[in-house]
Amino acid sequence: MVQQVFSLLSVEILTAVLGMALLIFGLLVPRNQSRGIGYITTIGLAGIFLSTLAYSGVNETFLNGMYLIDPYSTFFKQLFLVAAILVSIASQGMVQKLGYNQGEFFSLLVFATLGMMVLAGAGDLVTLYMGLELMTISFCILACFKKQDAKSSEAGIKYIILGAMSSAILLYGLSLLYGVTRTTVIGEIATVLGNAAPTPLMLLGMVFLAAGFAFKISAVPFHMWSPDIYEGAPTPVTAFLAVASKAAGFAVLLRVFMIAFPQMQAYWGMLVVMLSVLTIVLGNLVAIPQTNIKRLLAYSSISQAGYLLLGLVAFSSLGVGAILFHSLLYVFANMAAFMVVIAFGNSTGSDEIRDYTGLARRSPLLAAVLLFAMLSLAGIPPLAGFVSKFYLFTSIIEKGYVWLALVGVLMSMVSVYYYLLVAKVMYLGEPPAGAKPIEVPAGFQVALLVSIAIVFAFGIYPAPLTELAMNVAHVFFPF
Q1: pLDDT at position 66, please?
Q2: For 17-37, how does the pLDDT look when each residue is reduced to its tens digit (9 = 90+)?
Q3: In Å, how far are 60, 69, 217 from 57, measured between CA atoms?
Q4: pTM of full prediction above 0.90
Q5: Residues 309-350 pLDDT 10s
Q6: Residue 275: inside a domain, yes or no?
Q7: Beta-carbon neighbour count of residue 104 at 10 Å?
Q8: What is the DSSP letter of 62?
Q9: Is residue 373 part of a domain?
Q10: CA atoms of 151 and 351, how far apart (whole Å)
Q11: End-to-end C-alpha distance for the chain, whole angstroms
Q12: Which of 74, 89, 224, 428 has the fewest CB atoms in 10 Å of its CB?
């Protein structure tokens, strides 16, 4: 039995071992020879990703339902690992330039990934909270890692304060849920509640849970932390927050609401509809006047959370499959955009959109990748973002929410406008006098090209990923 548990938990154990090893390497390796820590991180994460392939089709529950190894958790573990690999590649130049605590940075990156994995596999409220706190604490430190940068320090402090507040709200909701049901196992909560009418205490606990999760996914009106922290944190950390942290929030949100509260969908469904509309509209409209590329991508990320919530509104296998499809493609599109921002920032030290003037002449690769990544986020064919949004809109139209789909389409058109404002600066403006070409390391170029190639590939031929996403969605809708 013990051997089986260790076998099923091998991905999490390997991730924890890698995180500890990186921390030790950082202490033992001389500072002038510490560049290799980034390469070890990338190789180690790639090896762990390959180990997850052995769990295809595995569906096990153990530790009395506290932890789940199923296609759903495996899908999200692979998503988190892909994002972590891309971030580790993108971080190496920045961390080398900082010149300190490289082992700690990459170790925290791995431990944040481990926290996300625990969230995705949590079958128990206590396990859920442990994974959430491991992820949050790691991000708090990473956000203020540039200790001599006032904006980075401010970002870390804000994340700690607001993260503590959201964790308290979520924990209070979890305690109310336990008080009503007398169980912490998510799968048993629905059984205890049965088909009885929900009590006011149950509804209050559900609202607190929704508020806590909404903070983690940056849904309006719980988005207040995102723009400032995204702008102040080191750009690779911002990318990881925008991509993997959001996906982790959705992983646990779906698990709890789809399994614990299916009979209460009439109550939380309208709440999710309101959150979705507010998030889509505000995220896209407030992105228009932004002059900082990281803040623009922050509000774009907020709007993407609103689109993903549409799949939860649908409450169907197509809706869940659309969330999974969009989440994975969002990793590659958004990481491609942020890697361009990282490369540009490493070269120029600026994140202002006006400084991207003439980027197409200074680095045609960076300009092209950023353009295609933003067009995919906007949902323009033949890029993968179009397919994922099509699935999301189709799922809610099938449930009769035609007006909600129209709001989504209209706001997607708005997003095209502010994305093209950046493209206009890059392609129609003249670079500053004396501006030098931006050099992009070979490994960085490969990561950029692979990311954007995947966005194109699944936009033109989405069938394999669509089939995978729909098969995983059967965890919630087996028939």
Answers
A1: 83
A2: 999 998 888 887 766 656 678
A3: 10, 10, 28
A4: yes
A5: 999 998 889 999 999 999 988 889 999 999 899 888 888 888
A6: yes
A7: 18
A8: E
A9: yes
A10: 13
A11: 31
A12: 428
